[in-house]
Amino acid sequence: MPTIGTAESLNRACERRTDKDWIASAKFHARARYMILIELKPAIVSDEERSIASIRWFPRSDIEDFGLGREEPVFLGLDDDENPHFAINITEHRARAVPEGPFILKPYVDVRGLAGQGTMSPEELSLAGMARAIASWHTTQRCCGHCGSTNNKKDGGWRLKCWSCGQDHFPRMDPVVIMLVTDGDRCLIGREQRFPDGLYSALAGFMEPGENIEAAVRREVLEEAGIKVGKVTYQESQPWPFPHSLMIGCRAEALSTDIKIDTEELSDAKWVTREEVRKMFAGEHPSGTQLPRPYAIARKLLMAFIEE
Ligand SMILES: [Zn+2]
Question: Is this prediction's pTM over 0.85?
């Protein structure tokens, strides 16, 4: 099952981004390819049954024909043959102005939805996630946070520079700790208020300035579930471009077991045994409890636990 950010199909060629002349000519490279996102949703190619999906790449000539030649694209990287790849994000309003746009650009699909369907390869999903994250950053950082003037795109879209005060702005990433708290053969799962009925997952929360990963894990678990945590170990991470998080997956050993939930954050939390988790994965648990979808890192944390 594909996950976001587990594979890289393009060389990001970061060293080329700052070469203005190189970027300018790469845009018109004979084999340059463009991803078009409409309201952050990439245009894709799909079969009738919607069982496979891939990014729909457009040549530069299409970009010109669509009237998008003046858009400043995001440089995504180079493929094995050194062909440059770019992404352009436009509004739905703009898409309607493209000759036959509503027809020619469809379907365009939410990246999160694509991850959930499992119909796109991990490499393409990662690329779509990267393009979405940068495009989303551009849409929310039009103005300089320092002086309020207009930001201009630089370095193939990977830097924004204020035209007035010269302040540089770089893409932000928000670290989130997501942790499976364990107590011997049991682990702690919780339900956030916004979750669909029956769904439980590992606890998670944003890191705060001045914290390391271990401190953030201990604080979040204590705040949300009233459980004290001792040893914290890192397991794996996953970019989560909705809009720009990095999920840091950890295991946390419980020092206490009495649950006291913060009802602002959680509607429930409970200890479950490995055997129960196996039944939940199989959809055979009498409580009807559901666990996260395969593309979510929480699922991997739970899988690693039951496989021990
Ligand atoms: Zn400024």
Answer: yes
